[in-house]
Design a protein that fits this description.
The complex is a heterodimer of chains A (288) and B (452). With 288 residues, chain A is mostly helical. Helices cover 72% and strands 0% of the residues of chain A. Chain A has two domains: 131 residues, no CATH class; 157 residues, no CATH class. In chain B, a hairpin with a 2-residue loop joins β9 and β10. In chain B, α4 runs antiparallel to α8. Classes of the chains: A mainly alpha (288), B alpha+beta (452). Chains A and B meet through α6 and α7 of A and α2, β7, β10, β17 and α9 of B.
Amino acid sequence: MNSSQLLGFTTFAYLFASILYIAIFIFRAQKIGLVASVVTLLGFLGHTAGFAMRWIESYQMGYGHAPLSNMYESLVFFAWSIAIFYLWLEWKFKNRLIGAFAIPFAFFSMAYASFASEIDGQIKPLVPALQSNWLIAHVMTCFIGYAAFAVAGGIGVMYLLKDSYEEGQKQRGAEAGGLFSTLPALRVIDDIIYKCIIFGFVWLSTGIITGAIWANEAWGTYWSWDPKETWSLITWFVYAAALHARFVKGWSGKRIAWIAIIGVFSVVFTYYGVNFLLSGLHSYGRPD
Amino acid sequence: MENKKGNSLWNFFASVKLALVTLFVLAVASIIGTIVPQKEEAARYIELYGENIAKFFQVLDIQDMYNSWWFVSMLVLFSLNLIVCTIERLPHIWKVVHQDNLATTNPERLGKMAMRRHFSGEMSLEQASGRVETAMRKAGWSLSQAAKDGGILFFSQKGAYTRLGVIIVHVSILVIFTGALIGSFYGYKASVLIPEGGETSQVYQSNNQHTAIPLAFTVRCNDFQLTYYDTGMPKEYRSDLIVSKGGDKLYEKSIVVNDPMQFGGLTFYQSSYQPVQGQFAVQIVNDTTKAAQKFFIPARQENKWLSEKVVFGITDLSGPDMMKRYQYKVWFSDDKAAPSEFWINEGGTAKIKRTDTTYTFTAQPRFATGLQVVKDPGVWTVYSGCIMMILGLFVIFFMSHRRVWVFVTGDGKKASILVSGMSNKNKIGFEKNMDAIYDSFADDASLTALPQ
């Protein structure tokens, strides 16, 4: 088995799991809950094995390094972080319905990595700038943070859907029930969202800091307002604002759900938009 | 609190609203700086945006936005906001941390707390107190006590200082800013190009004037090596540097990207390289005697290696080929036989067989190594601020202030024990703490737990 095969298996496992979770949600088929979790777990184990295999394969090719060095590898790790973060959430909050709003992200990340023509999946040696142990610390901390934020955003969507459904039901004077009744109470969803944001915020802070320290070791400057650095700071501001809005101003519910969703756009731009739409040290493409 | 600079001005700087507005403006401004290219030539902005907008940009310093007066002012405003907010909130937090809970707690409130449990025992007040102390110690809580309202009030707490986590995080930002200020006032960023075999005793500041900054020593680049992977991508840029003063070698180090040289309060980073036009680096080794010499020569010049009685030169060039590499034509003679003439690839090696020995001949372009030279006395302050922030975040989000009260009352024959607790965060985790305390009391055979 090579890493490509393992990661291919993983992609389909996450697709299957996404379908199962959505089915549980739409058809209220609680009984297949365990199947969905097992499929996710198997996908995750294959994912971990694939990651390790690719690491080993790079050594076999003579230029060994952790598989965290380009867009393909980061997308794979991003998906891995989402999967492990979700599995932990599922275990902690004992609720499988979150899966419908989280695992699809893991699937899309893997699918995009594997099938997009602009993403090169070949194992390549590290250029001098990336030959550092900081690569592992910086990339991992950033992506675990991104994963938590992505899941928070997904759960934010879940919140808004349930909230607007309940509003509609209330206006019609109808009983709250139906599709969204199997979701946890809004208060509980809100609690999960803000805890995901806290978790992501601590990891993103560490990610920005490890990036700064690495930059100083490599280039002599811990902060140069490079677009990637600047956008990661903007994302940090968005979530810092969310935490202040909650803890100081008492915002909760719909507002926090919206911030969680908007934050994901900032994360996506920081991760992906900067590389392809702006110039700078992290760019793969250049503007006209 | 009374003598601060004017109530409404102080309140303005102490407001969270100001923080959110400043963060928002800083975020929007920062975004603009990522879309409008920074630190380019004036002509570039005219080219991209036309004369009028380019002129407007110049007025606002948009081409160097992050150092512009208005951006820096926003950072100053943000800092003032942080400082005032911290000063404003610290006294109250300090008060809560150091509060004498025995004095301030009204035992009546304890009966209304969400987390509470009643126990009773057939014993005197003093005996019950002893039981309480034992049970709490077993559960891992140390107590203080005071007589109150005809009974005895016990109090224990853990993590009071965690309430300072918020202060730590906010102060850490100020520490980072201070480090940045120290760096910009007492440090500099400079660069220098040193040809292989050459040396320098000054560097050039990375500002518009490229002001020369003299060094207290000389830095020599003995060798610059560029290696490639078999894929053609660069593998390593390495400079062998030697620091000397007055002819004495003080220090040497081979630097690569991610492994700079530190000397004399400065750090030298492998930053770039460029070929020295028309110059070549030639190394010749006598394979028998192992005598070796390095030469930096132009093309079409006769060069002598006197100790070996060798004369050589690069007589012609060809290329560049598809891989952008050149080939050199070499003429080599030791006066013992006819001269050797051959083509060699840029960066390649040739074995020249002569009458009584073989020479190994390598030739590549002569490079100048580009070093980034930085003096930054503020770096460790910035790093301290970063560590402080991580620790502060950990304290805020993963630690809590937990308080437990035990109120014992009795008539001498029967004692009543009320155990209650409160936590400012992580209720679920604290519930587990309380359960462990209740179990500790329940384990005491002389006490009975009362129904909820």
